[in-house]
Automatic annotation (TrEMBL), chains A, B:
Pfam families: GST_C_2, GST_N_2. The lineage of its organism: Bacteria, Pseudomonadati, Pseudomonadota, Alphaproteobacteria, Sphingomonadales. Keywords: Isomerase. It comes from the Bacteria. InterPro entries: Glutathione-S-Trfase_C-like, Glutathione-S-Trfase_C_sf, Glutathione_S-Trfase, Glutathione_S-Trfase_N, GST_Zeta, GST_Zeta_C, GST_Zeta_N, Thioredoxin-like_sf. This is Maleylacetoacetate isomerase. It comes from Sphingomonas montanisoli.
Length: 210, 210
């Protein structure tokens, strides 16, 4: 199994965490998003969006991190990254989607590049844009973690919500977003990141890191 | 069961289609996003992001359309909106996530309002922004539908990918995006929309439509 990835891809980091929590061995092929390597025709033939992450396994290519997380959960059920009950699964998936739909897509490299190139945004405007979407999402997530968390985002075991949260907190810190209003969220992220297998998935530990 | 919705919410429209395909009866409470009604404290207490859609059922509130679609699929398994095999489920979920993560969040009302208010974007720039993200996503989706579709986005039955596609095509048409490069995608959307139960979920047929 091959994971197509880039060390600073937040969506790739989600998949690395899930594979680490399950102990799933895999090779890693990297694409430097800063040079546009992910738009190489050979890669686009595999992954039509030309984005990372993607998984090559069993003769097929899977894209989109949320879909990949569900596939990992189905393929290697233990330890479970979704709760046993339908309501719990819905809450965990909503936390993951809050990050994957309403925060991350607004702040990724190609969107920030478009703000600068097509809308003439200066760095303070880009910073405010980033902080706005992270702040809106994290405020809601802090409430959801207060309701449903018990050490992790949902309950007392890591779930796909934590797989999405850790990379988003990493990204927020990179962008110097003030996280003081989200103490539960930060604590959950730190607790997940402290798991030994997870710590090895940190961007700075990847072979393609600067 | 209550669906919190707004007639022009693309994410709400996804949920309406899934409920219609399953024949699930529900009440509908509407929130006018143009007046910010979704930020009413009573609603935010239920749905901390203050966004639609949300489902109230069994004493809980579920948010985020992708999570709600999965919950609907688990709660009313027939007719199935996910394929029976793991690889098929992964492909369908990747198509849904492509729309829900990489197209729709960039073009929703609060993001377009922010482009105008905070970045001073003029209408031609906003139109180009919208067309860019729809174009990038639809080009990849057209390829995926060519590979995996057979009448619908995946195979010969509607799935959650179609639940996401129909509202995105509706939105693209509203924004006057040229869809001539995506004939398969448009045909799939029209075929889904022609299903009698689905046709009733069209935005213009909702009680809160202008």
């Amino acid at each position: 199994m091959i994971l197509h990835d880039y060390w600073r891809s937040g969506a790739g980091y989600r998949v690395r965490i899930a594979l680490a929590l399950k102990g799933v061995a895999h090779d890693r092929v990297t694409h430097d998003l800063r040079t546009g390597a992910q738009r190489d025709p050979a890669y686009v033939a595999l992954a039509p969006q030309g984005l990372v992450p993607a998984i090559e396994a069993d003769g097929m290519t899977l894209t989109q991190s949320l879909a990949i997380l569900e596939w990992i959960e189905e393929s290697w059920p233990k330890p479970a990254l979704l709760p046993a009950d339908a309501a719990g699964r819905a809450i965990v998936r909503s936390m993951a989607a809050l990050i994957a739909c309403d925060i991350h897509p607004l702040n990724n490299l190609r969107v920030l590049n478009t703000l600068r190139a097509d809308l003439g945004a200066e760095q303070p405007q880009v910073d405010a844009w980033i902080a706005r979407w992270i702040g809106d999402g994290f405020a809601a997530l802090e409430t959801l973690i207060a309701r449903h968390g018990a050490g992790f985002a949902y309950g007392d075991k890591p779930t796909i919500a934590d797989c999405c949260l850790v990379p988003q907190v990493y990204s927020a810190k990179r962008f110097a977003v003030d996280l003081s209003a989200y103490p539960r969220l930060v604590a959950v992220s730190e607790r997940t990141q402290a798991i030994e297998a997870v710590s090895a998935t940190h961007p700075s530990s990847q072979s393609d890191a600067d």
